[in-house]
Every structure is written in C-alpha cells, then in structure tokens.
Amino acid sequence: MSATSHLNWPFFEARHRALAEKLGAWARSNLGDIDHGDTDVACRELVTKLGEGGWLKLTAPGDDNERLDVRSLALARETLARHDGLADFAFAMQGLGAGPISLFGSAAQRAAWLPGTRAGRAIAAFALTEAASGSDVANIATTARRDGDRYVIDGEKCWISNGGIADVYVVFARTGEAPGARGLSAFIVEGGNSGLIVAERIPVIAPHPLARLKFDNCRVPADALVGRLGEGFKVAMATLDVFRTTVGAAALGFARRALTESLTRVHKRELFGAPMTELKMVQGHLADMAVELDAAGLLVYRAAWTKDQGAARVTREAAMAKLYATEAAQRIIDTAVQLHGGDGVRAGHPVEALYREIRALRIYEGASDVQKVIIARAMLSEFSGAAS
Ligand SMILES: Cc1cc2nc3c(=O)[nH]c(=O)nc-3n(C[C@H](O)[C@H](O)[C@H](O)COP(=O)(O)OP(=O)(O)OC[C@H]3O[C@@H](n4cnc5c(N)ncnc54)[C@H](O)[C@@H]3O)c2cc1C
C-alpha cells in the first residue's frame, strides 16, 4: 500500500496530487537538518523555511477572491506530519492563528497581517482557552472594556500554542453584550504589547512552544476588534470549523508514517526462523491498521471536500473526521510500537516520537468526548426537525 494511493480518490483534483507530490519532495530535502533541541528556535526556522518554500500561502487567502482550500490544508498537514510533527505544528498554527483574520478580518487587518503570516515573517497564535474554560468555551473570564479609542484586555489564557514566540495573537475576551457565548469578542494583540505577559512556558510530551499568557491592562486600538462586538464565539467556532478537519489530517500523517515504519520492520525482522511477515497475528495487526487508516482518510477528506464545495458549516463532518482520525491514529501508532518490540519505546525512535506526538490531538481543538457531543447534537436536531 503506497503512502499516496489515496490521492486517486475522487475528492482530489490534479492540483491536489501535484501539491502532495511537491511538498513531499520538499519535506524530504528540507526537514532533515532541523535541530529540534530548542523548540522556539526550531519553530521559527520552520516557519521561515515553510514561508520561503511558498507553503504558508495555503494557510490564508492572498486576496479577496481567494478562499481557503481545506483539501490543500489537509494534504499539507498530512504530508508534513508524516515527515516531522513540529513542521506540521508550525504550518498549522499559521492557519489557525491567522484564521479569524482571514475569515472575519477587515480589509485593513488582512492587509496588515496576512502577507506576513503567508510569507513566514510573522508567527500567529489563537488564544481562546483559559484554565477554567477549555471545553466550556462560553465560560471565558478574560475581559475587554472600551476606554476611549482603545479596548483594555485583562485576564489569563492557558495552553496557547506559539505563546512566547508569536508576533500576532487573536485573543477572545468577554465584552458583555449578552451572557455566556454571546458576550465574547475577538481582538488582535501584537506580540510586543507591554500588557501581554508570558506568565509560564508549559513543557509537553511532544515539545512545541506553549504558554500561559497574562493580559494586564493590555491596551489595543479599537480597530483591533475582529468581526463584530459579541460575535467572538461565532468567529472562534467558524475558524475551528475549517481547521478541525486538518487536525484529523495531521493524525492521518502520523498514522501513515507508523504503518510504513511497521511494514519496514516486519519485513526486516526475523522471528522463529522466518520474517515477521509470516506470523498470522502480525498480518492481522497490519490489516487492522490499514483499514483504520483508510476509514480515517475517507472521513477527513469527505469533510474537507464538503467544505470546499461551499458548505457554510461542516460541523458534523469535521467532528467525525477529527474524532475518528485521532482515535484511530492512536490505536495504529500503539500497534506500531508493539510490532517494534523494545525498539518501539527507545527514545528517539520514529514510532516512539509518534506515540508522544499523537496524544495531544485527542484533546486540543475539542476533546474526543466533545466531538461526540457535537455529532450527537447535530444528529438529534436533524432527527427532531424531520419528525416535527
Ligand atoms: C498541546 C496543546 C495545545 C493547545 N493549543 C491551544 C491553542 O493554541 N489555543 C487555545 O486556545 N487552546 C489550546 N489548547 C487548549 C485545548 O483546546 C484545551 O486543552 C481543550 O479544549 C480541553 O480543555 P481543558 O484542557 O480545559 O480540559 P477540560 O475542558 O477540563 O476537559 C477535560 C476532559 O473532560 C472531558 N469532557 C470535556 N467536556 C466534556 C463533555 N461535554 N462531555 C463529556 N466529557 C467531556 C474530556 O475527556 C476532556 O478531555 C491546547 C491544548 C494542548 C494540550
């Protein structure tokens, strides 16, 4: 089974096949020599390289006539994740961080920031989560109040990717037009703002820049508001609606790499006087991995294709894609570790790294349980609509 045979699926056009092939070749010759010792340095280098390669143009539209192509975003993430988890992270965050600006920003905001994020000159971050409001987004406590020609932001954000190295943050805060989700708004905060403090750097199992941020009398101009007052929840959810599918695509890339590593291993390794490939239970594991991989791919690219066909929202499809692909990838990678025996848990082995890389994807941008709630709610509301 080739790592690219799925490119013949009807979801794709010739330009998608060309993208996957070119990015794969680029990744093979550009990602091998990046030192991951210091993740901040590595991340900056990756954003610069991805920008110079022209790949970050996929993460935000270049002009008003261009739209985000979710199949291209997903294929790019799958391809990068197959080669290097941090490269996928650097690519993905340029899209998610700039997402509210590209989807809801004014012409001036888009002109101010998107050329930089698309070229790899400006690093982007998406600051939604707080210590007490991760899954429960409507519970956000950070506030933004109007003061003359400015807004003043106060509060804390937690688990913010690119926190500490970003040039531009989109920050979601309570402006109080209504209770809960309807009283939130989104603001652009520049990395150098003196009211934005990196309170803590958070180390995680698959290292990438991550921080808790403090906003202390953080003053931004009134035109830093993204979209309309009170529409912050809508801005956040519509952004996640586009990018959630691509988390599934990254999982697919990790899982595909795990299957390739496993196939190599079972061909090379001899057990009981014969190659491991001859053991029936090993064949069973490989078959399970391949089926789960294809099922995940079909859900991911169904969601991406549906969005690209002009669907206003793909909430159910994106939730199914993220839920299934991340959970399946965890199982596939776990099997890959098992098939590698001791080597599977040796620090620095590719499958050991994949085992750490995959875990957070089942938590961020909506934990798996939250995706189940979204899918069930969508189905139940369709059912009650049809029954009434
Ligand atoms: C590596 C990493 C990077 C991140 N990057 C960002 C970022 O860039 N920007 C950002 O804003 N946030 C980011 N996050 C935050 C992430 O989105 C949250 O961690 C996630 O939404 C879960 O929130 P929480 O950690 O508060 O967990 P909680 O909300 O406390 O949830 C804990 C668990 O409770 C269960 N649960 C929650 N809700 C339900 C429900 N309705 N029904 C049943 N079970 C439920 C789930 O099992 C869930 O995992 C990142 C997180 C990680 C780990």
Secondary structural class: alpha+beta
Strand content: 15-25%
Percentage of residues assigned to helices: 40-55%
Number of strands: 10
Described by its quaternary structure, the protein is: single chain
Radius of gyration: 21 Å
Number of helical stretches of at least 4 residues? 10
Strand order of the largest sheet: 1-4-5-8
The best one-word shape is globular
Which ions, cofactors or small ligands are bound in this entry?
flavin-adenine dinucleotide
First and last CA, distance: 47 Å
In the predicted model, the low-confidence regions spanning at least 5 consecutive residues are: none
Order of helices and strands: HHHHHEEEEEEEEHEEHHHH
Main sheet: strands, sense, barrel: 4 strands, mixed
Mean pLDDT: 96
Question: Short summary of the structure?
Answer:
The model has no long low-confidence stretch (mean pLDDT 96). The chain is 51% helix and 15% strand.
Structure description:
The model has no long low-confidence stretch (mean pLDDT 96). Helices cover 51% and strands 15% of the residues. Helix 2 crosses helix 4, helix 6 (232-268) runs parallel beside helix 8 and helix 6 runs antiparallel to helix 9. With 388 residues, it is an alpha+beta fold. The termini are far apart. The strands form 3 sheets. Strands 1-4-5-8 form a 4-stranded mixed beta sheet. Strands 2-3-7-6 form a 4-stranded antiparallel beta sheet, with no helix packed on it. The protein has a two-stranded antiparallel ribbon with strand order 9-10.
